[in-house]
Amino acid sequence: MIRADAPLIEAARQGDRDAIVRLLSVCQPDLKRFARRTCSNAQDAEDAVQLALWQLYRRVGALRATAAFATWLFRIVERECWRLLRGRGRTESLDAPDAPPMNLAAAPIPHDLRLDLAHAMERLSPPYREVLILRDVHELTAPETAAQLGLSVEAVKSRLHRARAKVRKHLLASGYWIKDDMPQEPRDVL
Fold first, then answer.
1. Residue 20: partners with Cβ closer than 8 Å, 6 or more residues away
2. What is the C-alpha separation between 113 and 99, in angstroms, rounded?
3. DSSP readout, the chain?
4. Tens digits of per-residue pLDDT, 129-188?
5. Residue 185's beta-bridge partner residues?
6. Mean pLDDT, the chain, as a whole number?
7. CA gap 38, 86 in Å, rounded
8. Tell me: the pLDDT tens digits for 15-37?
9. Cα–Cα distance, 31 to 48 (Å, whole number)
10. Model pTM?
11. Do 135 and 142 form a contact (C-beta atoms < 8 A)?
12. Rounded to whole angstroms, how far apart are CA atoms 121 and 101?
């Protein structure tokens, strides 16, 4: 969550150079923290933050609503991280050494469990589904999720708790866990 107050954002939107400089320094730590979780490596994270700060400097005056400020910046970082990740796939050398294998000890998730999980998430109402996806799939923090959805942190936590409970109830009804919380063998899907 960006810790910039509305008067500072508004002053920057109006073209106050000192406000823009202060806004850049206030936003940078939060953007770095977000980028480290979103980008695939530290270099990409730094590049994404620099691009977001540059866009902030150049285009803060075009921002229509002060309330959309944090979402706007986080989206710039997120898009840049994805762009850098996609671009790296096309430019890797064929002579590069193979990446170390992923953790092979992790048990594969049964196909029917994945289908039931997807079905349980589809059955959630949109407010619960959005929070669950942002927190558990995109791994945003509660404040980042709140900023992106325009909610309070408490509302995000409440919705996340309810969404997880509904998904858990659906999966338990599907018979995946027994009393001692151990996974059962995958059942056959016809």
1. 12, 56, 57, 60
2. 29
3. -----HHHHHHHHTT-HHHHHHHHHHHHHHHHHHHHHHSSSHHHHHHHHHHHHHHHHHHGGG---GGGHHHHHHHHHHHHHHHHHHHHHHH--TTSPPPPPP-TTSPPPPHHHHHHHHHHHHHS-HHHHHHHIIIIIS---HHHHHHHHT--HHHHHHHHHHHHHHHHHHHHHTT-B-TTSPBPPPPP--
4. 999 988 888 888 888 889 888 999 999 999 999 999 998 888 888 766 554 444 444 444
5. none
6. 78
7. 13
8. 888 988 898 888 888 888 888 88
9. 9
10. 0.45
11. yes
12. 30
Phi, psi of 109 (to 5 degrees): -85, 125
Tally Cβ neighbours within 10 Å of residue 16. Answer: 14
CB under 8 Å, gap of 24 or more: what pairs does 15-23 form?
15/61, 20/56, 20/57, 20/60, 23/56, 23/60
Name the residue with tokens 């001692």.
180
Nearest to 117 by CA among 48, 35, 177: 177
- pLDDT tens, position by position, 77-94: 888 888 887 776 544 444
Q: Which residue has the tokens 């990740």?
A: 85
Tokens 């823009």 correspond to 20
128: number of Cβ within 10 Å: 21
